[in-house]
Structure formats: structure tokens, C-alpha cells
């Protein structure tokens, strides 16, 4: 089995068994070296040092609309793909810097820090609901009742999306985030287009309302800077970035909470440490991010000719798959990488990316998880898995579809 080449590695990752547990496959990828060739002109990079460096290298960029149109002739027929290509996530300099600085000017560290009391209140409320639902010993799905509801509530609060509209977002978010997967079916693409159209209509109306009657929320603030004197964000860009903030705001953090609870179940000493305060919530959350990252891979394209990656030449029409999940388990970077150790110092996992596209929501995701996980474990000292959890069938966004628990033993 060790004799797998790069293509066999990626093929193995794309099987249901591979995406359910990619870590043994990542270990084999490390044994192949820092980079290996896959498919026609692509390179696969599992090494921490190289992933870290490529994310920051201005000679590489994300696949933008022009690049995507080049390798996917149907790209322009898909509203979801087109919309995402107008967001920060799929633009390079100079458009990326223009959009990102506008968003960052309103989605500030101060605004996120000010959310802390609202996050604590939401955690308390959801824990009480969990207690009520599981009071008679019934199994409750943690993903549905808590892991999804907390981040969706928080991002909607931040954006200014009314409470009554939030229940629709779980399915719509899931339909859209499939676009991040390396291989998707025509049916999934059609569902993503429909989800994108529905959310664009919804967010367009919300933006119009806030334009007419601004409030203290992020949609009002973003509409204001978008409409600024120098007309800095087009209407399409405004909607694309609002949609990205909404979906990125819960799809990933939901998985961080689920992956974190599953790891607490697998490592009762760590859960006890978190309850007693012997293990810091920040240390626990950083180790969850490293050990089982909610985002497992991203990709980059060369922006200039004549590049190579760790000595391997890259064709100008090639690309690079950066295995974040493998980099976080790189034996050259981490002592005993397959050990879950929330007392690690200076872990600096690559789960939020790096360089110009570094995750805009990292501070918010950390705030939610460091508040929620210790509160959950302390509130329910006998919290336990009720049945085997079910993983989502995704490679890129790694998390659980369901994680049934009982709150009292
Ligand atoms: C555990 C939770 C999260 C993880 C693991 C995560 C991961 C990432 C990663 C890896 C990237 C970079 C992708 C690349 O370079 O190709 C990214 C970008 C981004 N994330 Fe997150 N994210 C999380 C939570 C959030 C939240 C809560 C928000 C919004 C409130 C958010 C908004 C964004 C945005 C807007 C970008 C694009 C930034 C850019 O392209 O300049 N993320 N995220």
C-alpha cells in the first residue's frame, strides 16, 4: 500500500472511505515527499512548510473567473459558480485587495469582540434547549440542535438577518459549500445554482432594506462602504461577499464544534481537563483545528511562468492542491502528529489558511468554539455519545452530518 503514487493518493482521498478517514492516506502522502504529481498537470502538496509558503507566495493565486472559464467550458452557465467568483475567495490582486480591505473595514476585530456577550447568551440558551430535549434520556442530535444553530445564529446576528429566516440556511449552505469539493456531480451543481439564486434574492432584498433604513449591523455597514463616493463594490460583488460571509460563517464553525465534541468523547481526560480548567479552551480548540481541520484542502494556480514547487517544475496551465489536513499532521513539523494533545504550544495549524486569503472569520470561529465547548462539557458532566456519529460525505469541509448524544447518563 505504501507504493501509492500521487494520483493514487488523491483517488484514494476521493473515495467514501478516504474522505471518512483521510489521515492514513495523508501519512502515505508524506512518505512520498513534499510534492507529487497528480492527474495531468497538477501537483499535490502535503508538506507543512511548502503549504505554508505557497499560501503566502504572490506568484500563486486562487482560481478566478478567467481561470475557471478556461478549464470549465460550462462555468458561465452556473449562477452559483459565477457568484462565488465575484467574492474575495476567488479573486486575486488587485480586485482581491480592494474587496478585502472594504470588508475588513467593517468586519473588524472590535466588532467581533463586541459579540462576546451575545455568543455567551446564545450558548446558554442552546444548552438549555439541549437539556430540555434530552431531559428524559432521549438521544439528541448535537449537530442539528447546537453545532449548526450557534454559528448560524451568531453570523445572522452580526449581519442583521432576522431570526425567523435562519432555519432555511442549513440546507442552502450545505448545497453551496459543495462547490469547494474537487469533484461534484451535475445534480449537486444544479442544487447549488438553485441555492445561490434563492440566497441572492434574499440578501438583495435585505441589502435594499438596509440601504433605505440603515441599522447597526454588518449588512448596513457593508452597503454603506459599497455605495461609497468612489463606488468601490459592484452590486454583484456586494451580494457575492454577503453570501460568502453568511455561508462561511456557519458551514465551517458547525464542523469545528462537532469535530471538537467528537474528540472530547474520544479523549475523556482532555474533556475533564477542559471542565476543570486544567486545559485551556484556547489550547483545546487550537488542537481540534490542527488534528481534525474543518477545511482539509485548498488550491492555487501559478500566476507567472516558470515556477516550481519544492524543486518540481509546474506547467503554466497546471495547479497545486494544498493538503491543509495533511500539513497539520506533518511529522517534520509536529512531534507525534497523530496524537491529540491540547497542551501543545505554538501549534500554528494551517486550518485558517494563510497569506492574503487568510480566513476573515478566524477570530469569530475561535470565539464561538472557546465559549461553547467548555460550557457544554461543564453543563453536562455525563454527556455521552448515543450512537455512532455519521460523517458528512465531503473531503474538503470535514465534519459530521449527525452526532447523537445523551445529556444525562
Ligand atoms: C473553523 C472555522 C473556519 C475555518 C476552518 C475556516 C477556514 C478558512 C480557510 C482555510 C480560508 C482560506 C481559503 C484559501 O486560502 O483558499 C478561509 C477564508 C475565508 N473565510 Fe474562513 N474559516 C472558518 C470560519 C469562518 C467564519 C466564521 C467566517 C465568516 C464570518 C469566515 C469567512 C471567510 C472568508 C470571507 C474567507 C475569504 C478570505 C479571502 O479570500 O480573502 N470563515 N476560511
UniProtKB/TrEMBL annotation:
Classification via InterPro entries: Cyt_P450 (IPR001128), Cyt_P450_B (IPR002397), Cyt_P450_CS (IPR017972), Cyt_P450_sf (IPR036396)
Keywords linked to the UniProt accession: Heme, Iron, Metal-binding, Monooxygenase, Oxidoreductase
Keyword Oxidoreductase included in the entry's annotation: yes
Pfam entry (one): p450
Gene3D superfamilies for this protein: Cytochrome P450
Gene Ontology molecular function: any one: oxidoreductase activity, acting on paired donors, with incorporation or reduction of molecular oxygen
PANTHER family from the UniProt entry: CYTOCHROME P450 YJIB-RELATED, P450, PUTATIVE (EUROFUNG)-RELATED
Family recorded in the similarity comment: Belongs to the cytochrome P450 family.
Name the UniProt record assigns to this protein: Cytochrome P450
Organism per entry: Kitasatospora kifunensis
Lineage, top ranks: Bacteria, Bacillati, Actinomycetota, Actinomycetes, Kitasatosporales
Amino acid at each position: 500500500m505504501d507504493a501509492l503514487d500521487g494520483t493514487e493518493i488523491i483517488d484514494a482521498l476521493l473515495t467514501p472511505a478516504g474522505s471518512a478517514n483521510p489521515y492514513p492516506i495523508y501519512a502515505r502522502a508524506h512518505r512520498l515527499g513534499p510534492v507529487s504529481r497528480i492527474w495531468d498537470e497538477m501537483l499535490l502538496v502535503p508538506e507543512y512548510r511548502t503549504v505554508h509558503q505557497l499560501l503566502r507566495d504572490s506568484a500563486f493565486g486562487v482560481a478566478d473567473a478567467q481561470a475557471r472559464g478556461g478549464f470549465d467550458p460550462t462555468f458561465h452557465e452556473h449562477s452559483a459558480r459565477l457568484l462565488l467568483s465575484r467574492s474575495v475567495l476567488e479573486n486575486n490582486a488587485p480586485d482581491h485587495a480592494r474587496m478585502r480591505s472594504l470588508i475588513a473595514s467593517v468586519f473588524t476585530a472590535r466588532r467581533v469582540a463586541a459579540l462576546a456577550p451575545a455568543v455567551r447568551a446564545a450558548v446558554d440558551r442552546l444548552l438549555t434547549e439541549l437539556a430540555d430535549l434530552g431531559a428524559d434520556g432521549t438521544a439528541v442530535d448535537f449537530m442539528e440542535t447546537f453545532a449548526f444553530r450557534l454559528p448560524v445564529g451568531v453570523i445572522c446576528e452580526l449581519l442583521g438577518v432576522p431570526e425567523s429566516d435562519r432555519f432555511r440556511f442549513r440546507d442552502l449552505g450545505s448545497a453551496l459549500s459543495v462547490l469547494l469539493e474537487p469533484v461534484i456531480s451535475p445534480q449537486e451543481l444544479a442544487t447549488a445554482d438553485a441555492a445561490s439564486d434563492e440566497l441572492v434574492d434574499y440578501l438583495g432584498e435585505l441589502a435594499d432594506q438596509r440601504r433605505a433604513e440603515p441599522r447597526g449591523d454588518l449588512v448596513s455597514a457593508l452597503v454603506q462602504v459599497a455605495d461609497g463616493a468612489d463606488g468601490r463594490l459592484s452590486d454583484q460583488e456586494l451580494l457575492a461577499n454577503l453570501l460568502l460571509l453568511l455561508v462561511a460563517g456557519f458551514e465551517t464553525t458547525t464542523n469545528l464544534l462537532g469535530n471538537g465534541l467528537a474528540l472530547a468523547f474520544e479523549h475523556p481526560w482532555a474533556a475533564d481537563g477542559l471542565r476543570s480548567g486544567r486545559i485551556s479552551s484556547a489550547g483545546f480548540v487550537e488542537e481540534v483545528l490542527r488534528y481534525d481541520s474543518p477545511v482539509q484542502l485548498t488550491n492555487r494556480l501559478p500566476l507567472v511562468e516558470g515556477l516550481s514547487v519544492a524543486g518540481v517544475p509546474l506547467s503554466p496551465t497546471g495547479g497545486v492542491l494544498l493538503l491543509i489536513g495533511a500539513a497539520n499532521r506533518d511529522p517534520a513539523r509536529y512531534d507525534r502528529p497523530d496524537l491529540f494533545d491540547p497542551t501543545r504550544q505554538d501549534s500554528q495549524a494551517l486550518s485558517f489558511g494563510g497569506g492574503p486569503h487568510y480566513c476573515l472569520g478566524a477570530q469569530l470561529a475561535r470565539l464561538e468554539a472557546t465559549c461553547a465547548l467548555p460550557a457544554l462539557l461543564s453543563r453536562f458532566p455525563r454527556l455521552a455519545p448515543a450512537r455512532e456519529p455519521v460523517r458528512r460525505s465531503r473531503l474538503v469541509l470535514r465534519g459530521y452530518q449527525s452526532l447523537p448524544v445523551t445529556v444525562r447518563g
